[in-house]
Design brief:
By secondary structure, the chain is an alpha/beta fold. Helix content is about 40%, strand content about 20%.
């Protein structure tokens, strides 16, 4: 039984075409400009104002309803416990999905839309890249070709960070990652100080991990999420987008002598494509099949993309 099939009787999701979903925008205003979208979208991602109108305004309205419901429940709990000094914790939105599927664009667009609500909430965005183990450790543990797999992250640091956020601590630090050097930047951190909303983006953020044998509590990253989104697409399309992105980067960012991947810019086009195919087949495809895709059904909302890299279907978990 495929619970993600729109015709499946027992699916926990309701399914909408992009056109149906766009009708839920209601009177949500468009607060982004075309120039801002150009700045927010990732390489090879065709998201434009029309896509924002079709998909993201309705999503912004839905998230607004969830945040408001969370705030109402918090006030009710304050009254229940007669504890007016308790601080509301940030509303955390997790965004998962494969490499090259468009998670970063979705996260950045949502951040800007949510921050422009009439209530002007404070919205921060963190990616899990900074929580990857340093390359020095990955090499020592023979994990460089498993980079991005669950075992390549500092899970303890991830859990401490999210625990700090959900405990309403001030000035919670997250390590910073450089896509230029393909490594964590030693001693560099970004500080998150009690946002109203935190967007937490990464390929494996919905990964449950191993269950304890003795019944002790072992938190998963998703335990800290108030709402989870999965960016989905057919495997063949993600493969195509990954190769296209690699070849574009070979002509742009990889040409920087400081880039970890600079050597690939010196190769012929055929040789570079062969490298990209190998990286996809041996690392990214394996990670998608073994770790990322199996977490899709744990999301509250699934945004499924078509061949044009735009959303064609939305699945929303039933209440």
């Amino acid at each position: 039984m495929d619970q993600l099939a729109p015709t499946e009787k027992y699916s926990p999701y309701r399914f909408f075409s992009a056109e149906q979903w766009s009708q839920f925008r209601a009177d949500t205003p468009l607060t982004l400009t075309g120039d801002e979208i150009d700045r927010l979208r990732s390489l090879n991602d065709p998201v434009d104002l029309e896509e924002v109108k079709r998909i993201y305004l309705s999503l912004s309205r839905l998230l607004s309803a969830h945040v408001e419901a969370s705030q109402l429940l918090f006030r009710q709990r304050q009254a229940f416990f007669n504890a007016q000094d308790v601080v509301k914790t940030p509303f955390i939105i997790g965004i998962a999905g494969s490499v090259a599927v468009g998670k970063s664009t979705t996260a950045r667009v949502l951040k800007e839309l949510l921050a422009r609500w009439p209530s002007s909430p404070k919205v921060d965005l963190i990616t899990t890249d900074g929580f990857l183990l340093p390359n020095e450790i990955l090499r020592r543990e023979n994990l460089m070709e498993r980079k991005g797999f669950p075992e390549s992250y500092d899970v303890g640091a991830l859990l401490r960070f999210l625990s700090g956020i959900k405990s309403a601590q001030s000035s919670v630090s997250a390590p910073v990652y450089s896509h230029l050097t393909y490594d964590v930047i030693p001693g560099e951190f970004v500080t998150i100080d009690r946002p109203d909303i935190l967007i937490f983006e990464g390929i494996n953020v919905l990964q449950p991990g191993k269950l304890p044998k003795d019944g002790k509590i072992v938190p998963f990253l998703s335990d800290f999420f108030d709402f989870a989104i999965y960016i989905d697409a057919d495997e063949k399309l993600i493969h195509q987008w990954y190769i296209q992105r690699f070849m574009r980067l070979r002509e742009t960012a990889f040409r920087n002598p400081d880039s970890f991947f600079h050597r690939y810019s010196q190769l012929s086009q055929d040789s570079a494509r062969a490298i990209a195919e190998g990286l996809w087949a041996n690392i990214n495809l394996k990670n998608l099949r073994e770790n990322i895709l199996p977490t899709r059904a744990r999301a509250d909302l699934i945004l499924r993309k078509g061949a044009n890299h735009l959303i064609e279907e939305v699945a929303l978990r039933k209440l």
